[in-house]
Design brief:
alpha+beta; 8-stranded mixed β-sheet; 4-stranded antiparallel β-sheet; 36 strands; globular
Length: 646
C-alpha cells in the first residue's frame, strides 16, 4: 500500500465518566516497567542536556517503493525535517531533499519508478505546497501560486493518476484535482463551493466521501458519484439528533465505504456503507474509539487502530481468513505506520514508547523475525535512563474522574521529594498520550515529576466527556487542572509547595488561565497559547472555514459571546498574575498570532512580575527546527530551575 491514510481524520472522540464516588488514585497496579524503574532508582542515572535529548531522531512515513527495496521516511536527522530513502537491506539511507530552513515532509513514492511526492510550507505558515522530486534529483512545485494550501489525496488504482486538494480558487474551501503521473497535467474533478471536507476517494476514482460539519457534535457524510451525469453530493447518513461521522477509507474493490460514527454509543465505531444496496452494517467495534482503519492494496490485510486509554491498540487482520496477524517478538510499544509492499510479502512499521522514539521495523510476512532498521535514541542514552508513564485517575471538584499520565523521576522518593509540572495538551479536544517526548523526558531527567492531564473536553474518553467543557473553557476544565495539583500533593515523593503548569496552544491558554484566575501555581510556561479569545476566533485561517461553526459551538461566537470570551481571556486579567511566566512563540504562527504573546508579555511586565519571552522568527505553530527545539527546551528547564528549585 503506497499511502496509508487517504486524509488526516480529526475524530471528535469522547467517554462517559460518571460523577459519584471518587476514583482511586490509580486505576491499575504499577506496570512491570514502573517496578523495574523504581528498582533501578538506586543506580545513578546520567543527567542529559537538551541537545542530547534532541539528538534523538524523529522518523515517520512508510511508503514502500515500486520494487520493494526502500521506504520513504521523513527524518529530522539533518536538523530540519527532510525526506530520505531507507533501504530495507539495512544499508545507509539516502537523503532526497536538502532543506536547511523549511520542513520537507515525504508523502509517497510513485507506483512505477523512483519519483516521490513531498510537501513543504514556508517557515511554519502552514501554506503547504505539493512537490515532485524526479529521479535525477530535480524538483517541481505541482501547486504553484501565492497564499494557497495544498494536500495530497492518494493514488488512483491505475497507478497513472493521483489526487491533490487545493484552496487556490477560494481560500476557504478545497477543490479536488486529478493529476496525470506522466506530465502532471490536471483536471478538477470536484469543485467545493459549500464547505465540504474531502475525506476519501475510492481506489477506482469513481466515488468521493465528503463530510459536512454542522456543529461540534454533529456531522454528516455524503457520497459523490463522479461518473454520474450530475455530480451532486448525496447524504448517506440521515440521522436524528447529534451524531458525528467521518470516512476512514473505501474497500479495495470500491464497493463499500468504511466510516466512523458515534451514533451507536459513546465511542466511534467503524461501519460499512454498501454503494449498490445502500445498506449500512457494523464493521469493527471496540470498547474505545476506532481511530483509523485502512486496507493493503489488494484488500488482503486490514489495519485498525483503537485509542485505548491513551495508547494505540493496533490489529492487523488477514481478510481472506478472518484471522489476526500475529507478529514475531519485537520491541515493546505502540505500532504506527503499518504498510505493505506491492506484492504484500513485506510489511514495515514503527514502534514507539515512552522510553523510545519511533524506530523503523520490517518483517517478511510469515518469517520468524522482525528486523529493526534504526536506533533513534541519542548516543549514550538507554531506555532504562528514561521513565515510563502510568495511567492514573483522580477526582475533580465535582467528583468527575479525570484521566492523566503520571511520570515519576528515578531520583524521586519520600526522602527526596521533587518539584512537579502539570503539562496540558493542546486542542481544545486533544489528548495526552503515551509515547516518546523529548520535552517531557528531558524535564523528568532533570528532576521534575510530570502529570499529563486529560481534562474534561479531551478526546478519547467518550462523547459525553468531550462535550463537558463546551463554552465552559477556562472554568470547569481549569478546575480539573487545579485538582491535578491537589492530586500531586497527595504523593509522598512530590514537593507540595513547588508545582508549576505548562502547555502549548490550548494548553498554553489554560496555563495563562491558571495564573490569571487562580493563585495555585508557582510558575507557568505558555507555549504559543491563546490569551485573547475574541481576536483568535476572529482571525482563524480561512482554510478552517468548514469547521468555523464547530469552533464557535465549542468556544463561543465572538460576535455574540464577546463578553464571556473577554471574561475567560487572560490578557484582560493580567493584573491578577503574580507567578513568574515564560512565553514561547513562533512569529509565523497562523493560528495563535504573535501579537497574542507580545501583548501578554507586555501586560505581565507592566505588573512587575518576572516574565521571559522566547520568539522564533522562522517558526509557526510548533517548532520544526531542531536548533529551535533545543533552545526552547533549555529555556524551559532553566526557567523551572530558577523558579522551582532555588
Amino acid at each position: 500500500m503506497r499511502f496509508i491514510s487517504m486524509f488526516p481524520i480529526v475524530a471528535i472522540s469522547l467517554l462517559l465518566v460518571a460523577c459519584g464516588k471518587p476514583a482511586p488514585e490509580t486505576t491499575q497496579p504499577a506496570a512491570d516497567a514502573q517496578s523495574m524503574q523504581q528498582a533501578s532508582a538506586k543506580a545513578e542515572v546520567p543527567t542529559f542536556s537538551a541537545e542530547t535529548f534532541y539528538n534523538t531522531v524523529t522518523l515517520f512515513g512508510s511508503s514502500i517503493n515500486h520494487d520493494g527495496t526502500a521506504v520513504l521516511v521523513t527524518s529530522d536527522e539533518s536538523g530540519i525535517f527532510n525526506v530520505y530513502s531507507y533501504p530495507l537491506d539495512g544499508s545507509e539511507p539516502t537523503q532526497l531533499t536538502n532543506s536547511t530552513t523549511d520542513a520537507m515532509m515525504g508523502v509517497s513514492w510513485f507506483p512505477k519508478d523512483g519519483r516521490m511526492l513531498y510537501t513543504a510550507d514556508q517557515g511554519g505558515n502552514e501554506l503547504n505546497h505539493v512537490y515532485v522530486r524526479l529521479e535525477d534529483g530535480t524538483t517541481q512545485d505541482l501547486t504553484p501560486g501565492e497564499n494557497l494550501k495544498a494536500m495530497f489525496g492518494g493514488w488512483h488504482e491505475d497507478d497513472m493518476h493521483f489526487y491533490v486538494m487545493t484552496n487556490e480558487r477560494d481560500n476557504r474551501y478545497f477543490d479536488v484535482y486529478q493529476y496525470n503521473a506522466e506530465d502532471y497535467s490536471r483536471e478538477m474533478v470536484f469543485e467545493n463551493n459549500t464547505g465540504f471536507n474531502v475525506d476519501a476517494i475510492s481506489p477506482n476514482g469513481r466515488y468521493m466521501a465528503l463530510s459536512r460539519t454542522n456543529s461540534n457534535a454533529d456531522s454528516d457524510l455524503f457520497l459523490v458519484d463522479l461518473e454520474a451525469e450530475a455530480v451532486e453530493p448525496q447524504l448517506i447518513t440521515p440521522t436524528d439528533g447529534n451524531v458525528q461521522h467521518n470516512a476512514y477509507t473505501f474497500t479495495h474493490d470500491s464497493s463499500k465505504l468504511i466510516y466512523g460514527t458515534d451514533g451507536h454509543g459513546e465511542f466511534y465505531q467503524a461501519w460499512a456503507y454498501d454503494m449498490a444496496s445502500e445498506e449500512h452494517s457494523e464493521h469493527f467495534v471496540a470498547d474505545w474509539d476506532v481511530s483509523f482503519l485502512y486496507f493493503s492494496d489488494s484488500g488482503k490485510y486490514q489495519v485498525v487502530g483503537v485509542n485505548a486509554d491513551a495508547s494505540t491498540e493496533l490489529t492487523i487482520t488477514d481478510t481472506t481468513t478472518g484471522s489476526e496477524v500475529v507478529l514475531p517478538e519485537h520491541p515493546p510499544g505502540d505500532l504506527r505506520g503499518v504498510n505493505f509492499s506491492d506484492d504484500e510479502t513485506t510489511m514495515v512499521f514503527y514502534v514507539n514508547s515512552d522510553v523510545s522514539p519511533s524506530n523503523l521495523m520490517f518483517w517478511q510476512v510469515g518469517s520468524e523475525n522482525v528486523v529493526q532498521l534504526t536506533n533513534t535514541l541519542a548516543e549514550g542514552m538507554e531506555p532504562e535512563h528514561l521513565v515510563h508513564s502510568q495511567v492514573i485517575r483522580y477526582p475533580s471538584f465535582d467528583l468527575l474522574s479525570i484521566p492523566a499520565l503520571l511520570y515519576k523521576p528515578h531520583q524521586a522518593s519520600a526522602e527526596n521529594k521533587v518539584p512537579a509540572v502539570i503539562v496540558i495538551h493542546g486542542g481544545p479536544g486533544g489528548q495526552a498520550r503515551k509515547g516518546y517526548s523529548a520535552m517531557i523526558q528531558h524535564l523528568i531527567n532533570h528532576g521534575y515529576a510530570l502529570l499529563g492531564v486529560n481534562n474534561r473536553g479531551s478526546s478519547g474518553y467518550g462523547k459525553t466527556f468531550f462535550h463537558l467543557d463546551d463554552q465552559r473553557h477556562g472554568e470547569d476544565d481549569l478546575q480539573d487542572i487545579v485538582y491535578g495539583k491537589k492530586y500531586l500533593q497527595t504523593l509522598d515523593w512530590v514537593d507540595p509547595d513547588r508545582i508549576a503548569v505548562m502547555g502549548g496552544s490550548y494548553g498554553g491558554y489554560l496555563t495563562m488561565a491558571a495564573l490569571a484566575f487562580t493563585d495555585e501555581f508557582d510558575a507557568g510556561i505558555n507555549i504559543f497559547g491563546v490569551t485573547n479569545w475574541v481576536r483568535t476566533l476572529e482571525s482563524i485561517p480561512p482554510w478552517w472555514e468548514s469547521f468555523r461553526q464547530s469552533l464557535y459551538d465549542e468556544l463561543g461566537d465572538p460576535a455574540t459571546d464577546g463578553e464571556r470570551l473577554r471574561r475567560i481571556s487572560p490578557l484582560f486579567h493580567a493584573d491578577n498574575i503574580k507567578a513568574p511566566v515564560l512565553v514561547v512563540q513562533g512569529a509565523n504562527d497562523p493560528r495563535v498570532l504573535q501579537v497574542e504573546s507580545d501583548e501578554m508579555v507586555e501586560a505581565i511586565r507592566a505588573n512587575n512580575v518576572p516574565v521571559e519571552y522566547v520568539l522564533f522568527d522562522d517558526e509557526g505553530h510548533g517548532f520544526s527546527s531542531k536548533a529551535n527545539r533545543i533552545e526552547a527546551q533549555e529555556a524551559y528547564v532553566n526557567f523551572l530551575n530558577t523558579h522551582l528549585k532555588q
